[in-house]
Amino acid sequence: MRTLAFALIATTLPNLALAVPSSPYLGEDALTFPNGRSLPARRTEVGVPPRSQAAWAELQAHLGTTWRADFDVVTGVPHQIYGGFVDAPGAIASAEAAQAYGLEVLARHGALLAPGAAVSDFVVASNDLTDGLRTVGFVQHHQGLLVEGGQLSFRFKKDRLFMIVSEAWPKVQVNLPKVLLAKEAAVAKAQTWLRSVHGQEGELRDFRGPLILAQTPEGPAVAFVATLRTRQPIGQFDVYVDAESGRPLARRQTLMFADGTILVDSPERYPASTRIQHPGDGLWVTINGVQALADPNGRVTWTGNDTGSAVLTAEGPLVKVVNAAGTSTSVTVPIAPGGSVLWSAANEEHVDAQLVAFVASQDVKHYTKIIAPQMRWLDTNQLLATVNLSEEACNAFSDGVTINFYQAGNGCENMARIPDVVYHEFGHAFHFHAILRGVGSFDSSLSEGAADFLSAVMTGDPGMARGVFGDERPLRHIDPAGGEYRWPENISRDPHGTGLIFAGAMWDLRKALIELLGEGPGATLTNRLYYAALARSRDIPSSYAEVLAADDDDGDLGNGTPHLCLINAAFEPHGLVSSTLAGSGVKKPELIGFQLEVPVERQNTCPGTEVASMVVTWEVRGQPGSGGRLNLTPGEGTRWIASIPTQPAGTVLRYKLEIVLGSGDRTVYPNNAADPMYEVYVGEVTPIYCTGFEDVAFGQGWGANASTGSNEWEIGAPVGVAGSGDPSAAYAGDKVVGTDLGNVEESNGRYGRLTETQLNSPTIDTTGFAQVRLQYRRWLTVEDGLGDQATIVANNGLAWSNYASTETSTVHHIDREWRFQDVDLTPFVANSQVEVSFRLSTNERRSYGGWTIDEFCVVGVNMACGNNVVEVGEACDDGNDTNGDGCEQGCVLTPAPICGNGIVELGEACDDANQANGDGCEATCTATPPPPLAVCGNGAVETGEACDDGIFDGSRCAPGCVLPTVDPGLAQLDEESGCGCSTGRRSPGAPWALALLVFGLAFRRRR
Questions:
Q1: CA distance 354 to 319
Q2: 292, 301 in Cβ contact below 8 A?
Q3: Is 683 exposed, middle or buried (0-12, 13-18, 19+ CB in 10 A)?
Q4: CA 848, CA 404: separation in Å to the nearest integer?
Q5: What is the pLDDT of residue 991?
Q6: Distance between CA atoms of 324 and 344, rounded to whole angstroms?
Q7: β-strands 396-398, 256-257: how paired?
Q8: Selected residue with higher pLDDT from 295 and 844
Q9: Do 359 and 7 contact (CB within 8 A), yes or no?
Q10: Is the pLDDT reported for residue 997 higher than 90?
């Protein structure tokens, strides 16, 4: 026997610099309907929706109150239920027993888990026991037909049922076709639709059905599915058509393309890096006409002692490489006993691509076999790798079974010559074969993240696909410095971008487990948890609970898992832990009256996840300096509380909540730097005009237009297109109004650049109301006001606008939840009428989802004058309607009195219509004061005195200040003589002297 050892190596190419082009089919990996609308990423909420509360209470009564769930906001079905357990004796040892337990729970709680379905509608699809975790999956049927995507599964560990996952479609109702379309006709209908959309009809690769497609806009439909492969550009579509008429129902692009934008440093990764001599493990070698297989060290044996003739091809039992640019490479070389042969094509792109693809595929197959030893596909199927495709460049793809790579061009290296890209594309096939039927689902974003993570694990480098551009830059980086990819903020129309969320979480977990357990054990445990997530997850958000289930050791997630704290710490920065703060259990604040309550339902005792403090900051809108900060304290049960001071009716109260954990991590509610406070209106209002847009269409009083760009306003169900920031469900009901909801053909859920658009309400009659307000629900995502202006205009007056920075455009307005907003329209009402307009003016830079509006309501305020409470809009309120007492009828202050108007008013003693003093009413409308009391004998004639000379000798004045008695005769004489004296002893000159004296006094006073 002689041993042949050989290596496969690559070569160098000049640096390239062009960017990777995107596939034209990006965004079509989700189910896309004829109207252009696509299904949004699944959105779940922890709270129990009203329609499910009774059924949820019944489940808790049966299984225990420690169970918790997140509910699908569209279907109302609980997606993942865990946190408790129920004994299931024999479930681990017996597949039949586990299956029976699952069906028993379904029979009892079908109204919650699969509303409207029967137990018989669910058919067992998988029953898997791995690492002590038994998973039983059922697929949903209706009237004997498979319901596409409908499934229900149960998790058992330690003979305990401890997790239930439902993706059942509720209340499926269809009328079975009387006549089914022939296969050929159905395929032709599918091809016709695809050609009308993408200009290619596609080559038939598979055909399924009839089955039920539950999620069409018109409701469930019986369908056939034709899988069609297109070329230039390449794609593969599952096209659903009505099984009776052939009417197009939906399509989904299923190929996983390798393009993106992330970069890292590592040698031996691409043609221009260091070359290594890699063993030809798994290569078929024909020596002297006899086929031999190289072992992991590249050794082969043959009979005889002479030099043999070895024929080398890039094929083995596990991998076959096909050259799309010509005949697959083959070389014949002499091999001497005990010698070696080096097969090198470093300077031949098309040959080197075949060798690198073979080696990388062989390596990744061996590695994943360690991760999933039970996956028979890895060692019983020959992987087909096609290289040197020429229809385009800068790309590679997997269809779940094969992997395919394009040759160099457009500034990109030959993709088969980048081992990272080979690992990545193989990762899609690995994910596809890992999925447990009736349990997990193939989600394109999850698969992209899984493929990137596998590539990074193979190289030990989170910078994936270095060398695509001929240098050290990575194509994508799953662990970027200074930031993490987070759900849902970083959801992208490109699933490669969204996949970085899952890849980053798994990489962070891998680092933490290696630090805790060491390189070998830490990596091994990470791989086990990674595979469990691929096998059982429906999408990226559901991966967290599946990782917990795989890590659990006692069938009770309510008491945590061995590595719960590390898992939380890895997944929380990526937004994948159900609670806003991983492990703290803190939920959104609730303002009940003036008491703020924050539910805290702790699920674990991870260090640092306990709440250290909560502070609410509050203020009255429009009153600078009002309000304050209050510490919340633990109240009864699981709630933290604080009481905000009572505010008068008509006040708009604003508040925000700041939470600090024991670790020092902080968060705030609401999470919007441009509008950082919730607001609530205090007091009663009267609806004037309200609509939830359920029965409103444009032209029914509402209108929209664009003065620049396209009019993108729509009324309909919100789609929540990935990356737009829009909601995926209305605040109430089904419909909203907004900019580019994603419901029309070729829409992307984002507003256009350089546009001026507006939505106009009907003209609203506000007769009878002194105060008029707009109160509605808003989900607004726009740039900083320096770039995009979102405004509310009332009768052409600016009532509100989004925040604008003073220097740089950095504070974008991104609502992450439905927000209540109150806008005072009173200053803009004219002639008891008002029209409200929502406007959007955009720049040429980035774009988001824009306006989404629900529960629009213009209301009037009825002030309660006379209730002894001074309310907003009242100057006073004394509890009566008596005028003139300081507070008039209408709760306005009594006007200040006007002295001199002849009317005695509040605060006046009199008013004689003049300003003369001494006439009984003075100039100040006060009464003339009474004269002072007379003092007889002081020489001054005062009121009540006839005279007062201070002598009282009877000559001029008698005692008592009365005139003396005069003889009538003398009096007559006096009158006749003109003396004017009352006695006969007066001096003839006295009157003149007196007159002169009086004159003199008068003169002196005038000086």
A1: 11
A2: yes
A3: middle
A4: 34
A5: 35
A6: 20
A7: antiparallel
A8: 844
A9: no
A10: no
Nearest to residue 999, comparing CAs of 200, 991, 3, 400?
A: 991
Query: Residue holding tokens 């019986």?
Result: 222
Q: Is-contact 292 315, C-beta < 8 A?
A: no
**Among 358-367, 869-878, 916-925, 972-981, the least confident range:** 972-981
Q: Say how many C-beta atoms besides its own lie within 10 A of residue 694's C-beta.
A: 13
Q: Are 138 and 437 contacting, i.e. CB atoms less than 8 angstroms apart?
A: no
Look at residue 329 and give its three-state secondary structure.
Answer: coil
Could you give the 3-state DSSP secondary structure of residue 689? strand
CA dist., res. 507 & res. 519, Å (int)? 13
How far from the centroid of its chain's Cα atoms is residue 127's Cα?
A: 36
Q: How far apart are the first and last CA of the chain?
A: 151
Give the residue carrying structure tokens 């049922």. Answer: 161
Beta bridge partners of 764: 834
How far is the C-alpha of 477 from the C-alpha of 258, rounded, in Å? Answer: 14
Q: Which amino acid is at 207?
A: F
Greatest extent of the chain over all pairs of C-alpha atoms, in Å: 190
> Percentage of residues in the chain with pLDDT exceeding 70?
83
What is the pLDDT, as a whole number, of residue 334?
62
448-478 CB burial, b ≥16 within 10 A, e <16: bbbbbbbbbbbbebbbbbbbbbbbbbbbbbb
- Per-residue pLDDT averaged across 46-60, rounded? 85
Structure tokens at 831: 């002639």
| CB proximity list for 9: less than 8 A, separation 6 or greater | 275, 276, 277, 278, 342, 344, 346, 355
Q: Which of 182, 170, 255 is nearest to 212 (CA)?
A: 170
* DSSP secondary structure of 870-909: --TT-S---SS--TTSSB-TTS-BPPPP-TTSS---TT-S
User: Cβ–Cβ contacts within 10 Å for residue 949, how many?
Assistant: 15
CA 612 to chain centre: 26
Is the distance from CB of 726 to CB of 849 less than 8 angstroms?
yes
- pLDDT score recorded for residue 138: 95
Q: Is the pLDDT of residue 998 over 50?
A: no
Token pair in block for residue 872: 């907003």
CA 250, 255, 256, 257 torsion-angle sign: negative
d(CA 624, CA 644): 17
Summarised one tens digit per residue, pLDDT across range 327-370 is 887 666 666 555 566 677 767 888 888 888 998 998 899 999 99
C-alpha span between 469 and 414 (Å, rounded):
10
What is the pLDDT averaged over residues 864-879? 75
Integer angstrom CA distances of residue 25 from 231, 257, 313, 354: 12, 10, 35, 27
Q: Report d(CA 958, CA 492) in Å as an integer.
A: 118
Q: How many residues does the chain have?
A: 1007
Return the structure tokens found at 825. 């329209």
**Is residue 404 within 8 Å of 500, Cβ to Cβ?**
no
d(CA 693, CA 734): 9
Q: Residue 605: which of 659, 645, 652, 661 has the closest Cα?
A: 661
CA angle 670, 671, 676 (to 5 degrees): 60
Fill in the DSSP letter of residue 763: P
Residues 851, 738: Cα–Cα separation, whole Å: 5
Report the C-alpha dihedral over residues 326, 330, 332, 336, rounded to 10 degrees: 160
Phi-psi region of 372 (alpha: psi -120 to 50; beta: other; left: phi over 0): beta
Kindly indicate the confidence band of residue 276, based on its pLDDT and cuts at 50, 70 and 90: low
> Number of helices and strands (H, E) in the chain?
13, 49
For residue 464, what are its two tokens?
């994936």
Asked if 168 contacts 132 with a C-beta cutoff of 8 angstroms, the reply is no
Are 674 and 814 in contact by the 8 Å Cβ rule? The answer is yes
* Percent above pLDDT 90 for the chain: 41
Q: What is the DSSP string of 49-71?
A: PGGGHHHHHHHHHHH-TT-EEEE
